[in-house]
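In practice, a research group might receive sequence data for several interacting partners and want a quick structural hypothesis before committing to experiments. The following worked case mirrors that situation: the sequences arrive first, and a predicted assembly follows.
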Amino acid sequence: MRLPGGRREPLALFMARVALPLLLLVLLVVFSLLRPATFFTLDNLGTVLTLQAVLGVLALGLLLPLIVGELDLSVAANLGLGVILVTGLTSQQRLPLVAAVVVAAVVCTLVGVVNGLLVTKVGINSFIVTIGMSTVIGGLISAYTQGNVFYDGIPPALVTIGQGRLLGVPLPVVYAVVLALAVWYVLSHTPVGRYLYAIGGSREAARLSGVPVRGLTLAAFAGAGLLAGVAGIVQAGILGSGNPTVGPPLLLPAYAAAFLGATAIQPGVFNVWGTIIAVVTIQVGTTGLALVGAPFWIEPVFTGLALIVAVATARYLRGEAL
Amino acid sequence: MTGDPAAHPAGEPRPAVAVRRLSKTFLGQRALRQVSFDVRPGEVHALLGENGSGKSTLIKCLAGYHEPDEGAIVEIDGRPMPLPYGPAEATAAGLLFVHQDLGLIPTLTVAENFAINRGFDTAPVGRIDWPGIRRRARAELAVLGHDVPVDRRVGRLPVAEQTIVAIARALAGAGRGARMLVLDEPTAALPDAETERLLAAVRQVVANGVGVVYVSHKLHEILEIADRATVLRDGRVVATVDVPGMSERELVRLIVGHDLPGGTAASAGSRTKGGTRGAASRTSRPADTRTWDELLSVSGLRGHRLRGVSFSVRRGEVVGIAGMLGSGRSELARLLFGAQRPVGGDIRLRGKPVRHRTPRDAVRDGVALIPEDRRREGGFLQMPVSRNLTLPAVRRFWRKGRIAGQAERSCVDGLMAEFRVSPAAPERRFGVLSGGNQQKVVIAKWFNTRPDLVIFDEPVQGVDVGAKEEIFGLVSEAAGRGAGVLLISSELDEMLGLCDRVLVLRDGELVADLPGADLDRTTLTRLVYFGTGQSAGTSDSASTTAERALS
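A structural hypothesis for the assembly, expressed as tokens:
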């Protein structure tokens, strides 16, 4: 199915590229028409985005290992670790907030570094390493919290981190946008980004092209750890408490967002803006459905179906195009 | 050869398979036009043509993977096949196919690979009858005159034996009804010595009355084994010819449609891109060592296979490395490139000792490797050609905190044009290019890093005749730019035409380091097989020894 050698993009590929943003637009229009009083309001928009900002940051972290062809299944547990450290260290150990934030971010990054070392130096499959790591983190969280939720003694400044606003925009949304810009810059505009995608394309070809495969794979895991930690700190601020169960349920939605995102903007490639659009689309869909009175179980069904249908459609369209 | 099948001339044997007026159109593009040819029982019929000439499409049509356009006729022993048919009907009718990717499961044993195709024989209570399965596999291999250990995992066999297993398995799948066996590039991954074993197996197949369709870019092989050849160009049959009595030059002319400059592929070394450096270049390179710096000097280099190898390469010199598979030639490349750590020995580059721990170190030091396995190691199949081209040199475009898109694009466009990559579409995925164009992209990517030492590992494997010429031209161009070049190749003729010196490796040792001008093919072949240029007796005993050396 050779196409003429021109640079014009085939229609099918263009459709694949814009299918997800188009879906988002359709959802926005439909729900605005159905519930003009509640849906398309600034308040609602803020709520919708805040709810998904943490998931967005987590998904950004996940992108890095995915791009180099590795899985990190420990990011959600790592997020939970961040929540517990920042709330526990301030409320139980009475550490200043800044110190607690730094410790949480460093520890979560170290978790990523250990994952990366086990994958690159010891040569264990990342799927296994990170499942193991995820389980270990869950156990350590239980040991530290003894199953309790930290409510008392949470510094108000932490709550501001999670619930404050900048020029009317909820702070978590600001963080997510800034981090998305940073990750996008690294991936799309620096040699490091090129190398990461090259490693994902073919580890051996990348190595033989002079790409530092081990170092960058390690860095991808470290980056995933750091972003999981940041997401955890923000989540702690939003909740105003340290709940040992917040992390793990975010794992599958974060993967769903990354894979859904890989169908859009640059189809077939894990990319930042696709992932962000995916996160927002899922949230707009589920919030909208809730506002029009759909039953509570619609949310997971919608998310799951959106993922499968989008990936299947993108695959079909790309198959047609190339 | 487009006559009506009913009017088949008397005296000629009835074809096992006859194809008439077969066309195939993809999305309005004609891939095949009115192709007619036939395969006689017991003949080796070569199918020739450049990449993109329609060979693969034709094979896929015959195999039942593509549906030919209306009006085609496929006859088996004079009986028309109902069209369209699927792969299962093709096998049932005795049309068998062994593709370059053999379709064997490397982690299973030879016997299991036979059984998985045919269904596992069972003994009472439904258990698998292992002795029976082994016996049948042995019997099916014996048809080809081969005794392959049936309990060995397929992945651990030499590639030639794997191919023989695949052929035997295909034949076994058709029972007694095998009419035509299509071998698609069966020797692309084989060194010369293993090729002989495979050709012997092919002769056995035709001796059993099966017609073999043989696809290969290696023309000396075609001359050796084929009875007739059908040549495709742009989806049409250009000619069907009797092969005995033809020369390589005549075949090349049929395939590309004109004489290649410089004549046959054997004299590729005398041709360079752009024609600025002619045949004179090699002689014009001064023999005086004081004029040309010594670039690389290796002493006592040891690896897993290499056992203390010493040699040196000067700037502007093309040094060939000949040797059988397993002689250590690819290891030498990997050691010099930092892809593998040496066990011992010294490598000096520009007079300074170097210790490349990773390819990254080597790249920084101005070394480039065009690896043997282009699809796995040379390029990124899913990435655009443009990204493939600039990857090792991407830092050059790093300006003011970002990759300068315009500068990168013009670099890519320049490389695409200079290296004549076709199609000239830098956003196409690397994986969809033809083998020759993929190789040109890999070479362009490395030339763009302006390397001092360029190592080519089997650069023309699975590449069509036209591209082969261009690639050999690029090899000598690298030397012309003042780089030192190491060329590892199984194509001994080309190597002789191209190299200033040839090193011969055998069992990890350097057995010869001779000026190319002092060598001929016979001497070089003897050196490769036996480690000595002296005659090793009759050719019969020679090939026996070569086989022993391999196993």
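Before designing any experiment, note the following. DSSP finds 19 helices and 22 strands in chain B. Confidence is low (pLDDT under 50) at residues 1-7, 261-291, 535-551 of chain B.
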